[in-house]
Design a protein that fits this description.
Layout: H1 2-5, H2 11-21, E1 36-39, H3 49-64, E2 68-73, H4 83-96, E3 104-106, H5 111-123, E4 127-130, H6 134-141, H7 158-170, E5 179-182, E6 197-201, E7 215-217, H8 219-229, E8 234-238, H9 245-256, E9 267-271, E10 274-276, H10 283-291, H11 306-312, H12 316-326, E11 333-335, H13 337-351, E12 354-355, E13 357-358, E14 361-366, E15 375-380, E16 390-395, E17 398-402, E18 422-425, E19 430-438, E20 445-453, E21 470-471, E22 474-475, E23 480-487, E24 514-522, E25 543-546, E26 550-554, E27 563-569, H14 573-578
Parallel strand pairs: 1-2, 2-3, 8-9, 10-11, 12-25, 14-20, 18-21, 23-27
Antiparallel strand pairs: 4-5, 5-6, 6-7, 13-24, 14-17, 15-16, 17-22, 18-19, 19-20, 23-24, 25-26, 26-27
Bound molecules: adenosine-5'-triphosphate and magnesium ion.
């Protein structure tokens, strides 16, 4: 992840560098200051580009400072978590380049340790079993302007609390009937400190621990403890947890109070979560888009999920470059989605072989080209990469060109084919339009006719004659058929969640976000393209540039002889303008 480590210094770098200078977190055995970060997803959905930012940040920092990075599943809620999500997250983190070495960890492995610490807090008089219902609990909490009121169960004896908590664990009580709460301060201006719930009763099977537990820790109780157990130094999270930090600190301080060997106390640091225009990052809404069939699945190329980006043709390098480019800030903002697209263009421009593909085909007949003859012409594979060399492209009497590259009556400034006009066929010859054939019933143009100048082979005229238009083509006899899927933003508005009261964000879905073209004609070399998979089974589709159309990749829906391509991103508009389109 060199792109990440090369980012200019941001405030988290400054914090870590000061810590390192003071040896605040001790040192590794080799003497370097200790930096240990983690990515702690809850396995209740697929990862999205916001998570990618967090992965790049956490792994990037660990790598930059020669530290360690953990991948830890925060799997403490049995109701929403599934193995499918665990598997997809492992795949996505690996694909992005995150390396957790042997530290693929699960918070559910810490249930017993957390339970023991909860008992310790009860013994210290810092936690109690409360019989208030969830509704009563929220009434007791008060509000920002009104202090809370103490629970009538707050002063239970240590012995009674230990007994009840033990029986909660043994399954003697129904869901929701009791909780374990921290005894802090019901008048605290910070609502998170008003006797927060640490454990709830939930008779639910967990995807890893089965039925071993029927009490589950709450996020606020467990999260800091997981970081402590793993020796995380810089516990990096998003801004909405800033108000929770005093509570995390309180829990660890309470555990450590009076102890001779205190547990590790990580430093939480908050940064702004990523938001993108024309997109959304809420897992709940992404799940809804999938479940209700607004997209084809989690990996639909229009989704902001990591698997969607991958299927769309994004490279890990381009996602990392984007994350490095947007930086790390302490205030929330919305990033233009074009910055993500530009990162992909920049990378694919360097690596994608150029190919000829006609998406909306129209026949072009070269009247003076011999029937049955084939010329093999040289085409440049990648002007950005001399080592990529050239390839042969077959040329024959009947070609396909784009329907929009012919106009019977040209509009002003149109430099492509129209009767009497001469253009260059890319890598081939100059051709001059002689007319067209139309369907007598519909009037639709079915064929364009032209003559070619054999002296212009390769696309240059020996007499210095100039043409203003260059168009691409594919030999009809050699073409392979393909389906091509063109994508636009999933949401037509820049901030789709910004809707009036009572209106669903779904009303902002873009009905034209997917356009499917069938019967596209591709140059024969593209027949070898595949939706390849790496040694882990992760999609690494072949990616190419279709000249004048953008960057494309092979979709896994492809079958032998029936390729499907996704447009990853269009070319820059400046290209089209420069070529007089
Ligand atoms: P929820 O907690 O509502 O299920 P979440 O998106 O926070 O959703 P987590 O699995 O808790 O999901 O996220 C894992 C990590 O990714 C967290 O550390 C979180 O801070 C980070 N993260 C989540 N969304 C973003 C985002 N949009 N930008 C940056 N980091 C994010
Ligand atoms: Mg979260």
């Amino acid at each position: 992840m060199s792109e990440v480590t090369a980012t200019p210094t941001h405030f988290i770098h400054e914090i870590i560098e000061a810590d390192n200078a003071a040896r605040k977190w001790g040192t590794w055995p080799d003497g370097r200051p200790r930096v240990h970060t983690r990515f702690p997803p809850e396995p209740n959905g697929y990862l999205h580009i916001g998570h990618a930012k967090s992965i790049c940040l956490n792994f990037g920092l660990a790598k930059h400072y020669g530290g360690k990075f953990n991948l830890r599943f925060d799997d403490t809620n049995p109701c929403k978590e599934e193995q499918e999500y665990v598997d997809s997250i492992v795949e996505d983190v690996r694909w992005l380049g995150g390396d957790w070495e042997d530290r693929l960890l699960f918070a559910s492995d810490y249930f017993k340790q957390m339970y023991d610490w909860a008992c310790l807090l009860i013994k210290k008089g810092k936690a109690y079993v409360c019989d208030l219902t969830p509704e009563e609990t929220s009434k007791h909490r008060g509000s920002l302007t009104r202090p809370g009121t103490n629970s009538p169960f707050r002063d239970r004896s240590v012995a009674e609390n230990l007994d009840l908590f033990d029986r909660m664990r043994k399954g003697e009580f129904p869901d929701g009937s009791r909780t374990l709460k921290a005894k802090i301060d019901m008048a605290s201006p910070n609502l998170n400190l008003r006797d927060p719930v640490m454990y709830r009763i939930l008779h639910a099977e967990h995807h890893r621990t089965g039925n071993a537990w029927c009490i589950y820790p709450m996020y606020d109780w467990e999260h800091g403890l997981e970081d402590s157990i793993e020796g995380i130094t810089h516990s990096i999270c998003t801004l909405e947890f800033e108000n929770h930090r005093p509570l995390y600190d309180w829990f660890i301080d309470a555990i450590n109070e009076g102890e001779t060997s205190p547990i590790h106390h990580p430093q939480q640091i908050e940064f702004a979560r990523l938001a993108l225009t024309h997109s959304l990052m809420s897992k709940r809404k992404l799940l809804e888009l999938v479940k209700d069939g607004h997209v084809r699945g989690w990996d639909d190329p229009r989704m902001p999920t990591v698997s969607g980006l991958r299927r769309r043709g994004y490279t890990p390098e381009s996602v990392r470059a984007f994350c490095a480019d947007i930086g790390v800030a302490r205030f929330n903002g919305v990033i233009e989605v074009v910055r993500l697209e530009n990162a992909l263009r920049d990378h694919l421009n360097k690596i994608a072989p150029r190919r000829l593909a006609v998406l909306r085909p129209l026949k072009l007949v070269i009247e003076n080209f011999p029937e049955g003859a084939v010329e093999e012409l040289d085409a440049v594979n990648n002007p950005e990469d001399a080592a990529a060399g050239t390839r042969k492209v077959p040329f024959s009497k009947v070609l396909y060109i784009e329907r929009e590259d012919f106009a019977e009556t040209p509009p002003k400034g149109y430099f492509r084919l129209f009767p009497g006009n001469e253009v260059r066929l890319r890598y081939a010859f100059f051709v001059k339009c002689t007319g067209c054939v139309k369907d007598p019933a519909t009037g639709e143009v079915t064929e364009v006719h032209c003559t070619y100048d054999p002296a212009t082979r390769g696309g240059d005229s020996p007499d210095g004659r100039k043409v203003k238009g260059t168009i691409h083509w594919v030999s009809a006899a050699h073409a392979i058929n393909a389906e091509v899927r063109l994508y636009d933003h999933l949401f037509k508005t820049t901030e789709p969640e910004d809707v009036p009261e009572g209106v669903s964000y779904l009303t902002n879905l873009n009905p034209e976000s997917l356009v499917t073209l069938s019967g596209c004609k591709l140059e024969p070399s593209l027949a070898a393209c595949e939706a390849r998979r790496d040694s882990h089974g992760t999609l690494t589709p072949d990616r190419v540039q279709f000249e004048r159309h953008g960057y494309f990749c092979v979709d896994p829906d492809s079958k032998a002889g029936a390729l499907v391509f996704n447009r990853a991103v269009s070319l820059k508009d400046s290209w089209a303008k420069a070529k007089g389109r």
